[in-house]
Design a protein that fits this description.
74% of the residues lie in helices and 0% in strands. Helix 4 runs parallel beside helix 9, helix 5 crosses helix 8 and helix 9 packs across helix 13. Belongs to the BI1 family. Its main location: membrane.
Length: 335
């Protein structure tokens, strides 16, 4: 009965397949009808109907196990080779285009190299603190509460927390280690609190964006470190104007109506690709500014402060990373 309840029309289909008994049209009165062998004719027919019924049930409710295809190692190796070629080609092309005039002092002096390495170390530590803190906040449910809050409130509180801790770090004397590193850690926590909703995205996409960001910043930093002294410091003024335009274009969705589709599209492009160009230029400018500060600190003109230098590189990294994530996400949606 369970089969009938699940497939109510299967029984009717099976019964229609039963052959109709042929009845003779005429019969002589002097002959007696032949006895019908019901057991030999009807039983095989019922057996066929039952088999047909069971086969129909199996095709409907029993699914064939899916075949798991083995990963294509050749395709993975090709992607890794393509990625390595792209990164290497980017470094080579950037060095050839922007770094035709190298340093005239025979290389980077030891004090400048040490100053730059310590700055990069603090930059890596800051990025690591941001990543770990963002993961912890995301698991605690902070990302959901942040996304459901008022966007103007999030923007205001984020700016106050970020700018307050950043300028507090800049204003603290390098000898006051506790206060300086506490404000620096607060700045990283504020950035993590703002960026934690990015963890709703796929980890593979975030990893690719981080790899591309590191490759882009690494190639530009290499150019800035090996170029002539103070060659790109003139970019400070144009880059400041560019970042103002990018910031205004980023606020356009909060101000413009939804019907202004074309304006919103162009503002998004300015925020994405214009922001990549601007913060790539800031990376080049900041590296040369760090080397200039290293030379000044060696002469005793300024205090050595690698924490302040790392904040600038962290901001460059985060702004490029966010745009890389959005560009890669848009490419995945088009596929």
């Amino acid at each position: 009965m369970a089969f009938v309840y699940r497939r109510p029309f299967a029984l009717t289909t099976c019964l229609k397949q039963l052959p109709k008994a042929a009845t003779p049209s005429t019969r002589a009165f002097h002959t007696s009808p032949k006895p019908l062998n019901l057991h030999s004719k009807i039983l095989p027919t019922l057996t066929k109907s039952r088999n047909h019924f069971q086969q129909t049930f199996r095709r409907t409710y029993i699914q064939q196990p899916g075949q798991v295809s083995a990963p294509n190692t050749a395709s993975l190796s090709q992607r890794l080779l393509y990625g390595a070629a792209i990164v290497g080609g980017t470094v080579l092309a950037t060095n050839l285009v922007f770094n035709r005039e190298t340093r005239e002092d025979g290389g980077m002096p030891p004090f400048e190299r040490q100053y730059l390495n310590e700055t990069f170390l603090h930059t890596g530590l800051g990025i690591g603190i941001i990543g770990i803190t963002a993961q912890a906040l995301h698991r605690s449910g902070w990302s959901v509460r942040l996304m459901t809050a008022n966007p103007w409130l999030v923007l205001g509180c984020g700016l106050v927390a970020s700018l307050g801790t950043m300028y507090g770090t800049f204003a603290t004397h390098p000898d006051n280690y506790v206060q300086k590193y506490a404000l620096w850690a607060g700045f990283n926590v504020a950035q993590a609190a703002i960026l934690s909703p990015l963890l709703f995205l796929q980890p593979a996409l975030l990893a690719r964006a981080g790899l591309y960001t590191a490759a882009m910043m690494g190639s530009i930093a290499f150019v800035g470190a090996t170029a002539k002294q103070e060659k790109y410091l003139y970019l400070g003024g144009p880059l400041l104007a560019g970042v103002a335009i990018v910031a205004v274009s980023g606020l356009a969705p909060l101000v413009l109506p939804v019907t202004a589709a074309r304006t919103l599209m162009w503002s998004e492009r300015i925020w994405l690709y214009g922001g990549l160009a601007v913060f790539g230029g800031f990376t080049l400018y900041d590296v040369q500014k760090i080397l200039m500060h290293a030379r000044m600190a060696e002469r005793g003109l300024v205090r050595k402060d690698v924490v302040n230098e790392s904040v600038s590189l962290e901001l460059d990294f985060l702004n490029i990373f966010v745009r890389m994530v959005q560009i890669l996400g848009m490419r995945n949606q088009k596929r």
